[in-house]
Amino acid sequence: MNTNTKHRVLVTGGAGFIGSHTLVELIAAGFDVVAVDNFSNSDDTCLRGVEQITGQKIPFENVDCCDFAAMESVFQRYDFDSIIHFAAFKAVGESVEMPLKYYRNNLMSFINVLELMKKYNRNNIVFSSSATVYGETDVLPVTEETPRMPAISSYGNTKQICEDILRDTVASSSVKGIALRYFNPIGAHPSALIGELPRGVPNNLVPFITQTASGIRECLSVFGNDYPTPDGSCIRDYIDVVDLAKAHVAAITRMVEGKNKQNYEIFNVGTGKGTSVLELVEMFQRVNNLKLNYKIAPRRQGDVVSIYADTSLANNELGWKAERSLEDTLVSAWKWEQYIRRK
Ligand SMILES: NC(=O)c1ccc[n+]([C@@H]2O[C@H](COP(=O)([O-])OP(=O)(O)OC[C@H]3O[C@@H](n4cnc5c(N)ncnc54)[C@H](O)[C@@H]3O)[C@@H](O)[C@H]2O)c1
After folding, report:
1. pLDDT per residue over 45-86, tens digit each?
2. Does the predicted model carry a pTM greater than 0.85?
3. What does the alpha-carbon distance between residue 66 and residue 64 come to, in Å, rounded to a whole number?
4. 11, 12, 17, 20: which to mutate for ligand 1, most atoms within 8 A of CB?
5. Atom 2 of ligand 1, nearest CA residue
């Protein structure tokens, strides 16, 4: 950052997977931070890791963003003008079984943050959106202009609704907002001191792969090998978590420096490259020199066949580009898994 005084950023969900990596990149870029989390899907492992990597004590508040009074106290006690809002539940399958849990947490936490921004004149917010907002699209690659399709899960619906809440709040106030639509975040910090720490059975492919490799899971299921893709498995856009964290720094900097073209903007954050599940499994085995126990299972309901991003808008406007190779990302994921099992 090119300003003389340090700019502080509030990071909600800062103890989580993407939040912790973003704390590291914010500090590296010269920002001060304050993190909030209620540890509903994390513990203090990654916060301690962030402190080890940065050599700094991270100001932290154990607060539920749905608790308006507790959040208000954070706004009163810390001076910050920018917020990155990660705090949300994210398990797609669980959201279908427990929609109210997801609507309550993901909407209330966000509404509270926006209300408090208005009340305390805080200006900039980055919201964690998701490629799930595109639903079952057949437009490839997807651009930010690709129409959102009806959400397939309650989780996906919370992301669509939150985007709309942000759009309307920006239109009626001085708040500026950027929604980043993440594709499939994977990997870990090269230090292996922070990474993804799923509770229970992982929902996402890479933690399932690493847990299978370390023997916690017996066998990885690849859901479907008869899709209309070159090898029959689904295709996704896997974005390295450190690259993703840097996109947040670029988005905050854009607003702080007044370079945003509109007060509400949306950017896809992916690599622009589709990789099939079977390709990813093969690459994981090759780069880490190990053998995975996996089987082909029937297709899973709700899986989109293929989705990957057109990232030109983020490349041109944010000056951001995914840099880390998929090979390096998969090495880091395995290194993190081994570190966390030793702990
Ligand atoms: N990981 C992905 O695949 C992915 C993809 C697209 C979008 N996202 C979004 O990115 C954000 C971060 O995801 P992540 O992968 O780091 O998940 P995560 O679960 O590791 O991190 C979220 C953090 O928020 C905290 N949290 C949840 N509700 C809270 C509340 N009410 N108050 C305070 N803290 C709360 C959790 O304890 C957790 O530490 C989420 O909004 C998620 O929906 C994630």
Report:
1. 999 999 999 999 999 999 999 999 999 999 999 999 999 999
2. yes
3. 5
4. 17
5. 185
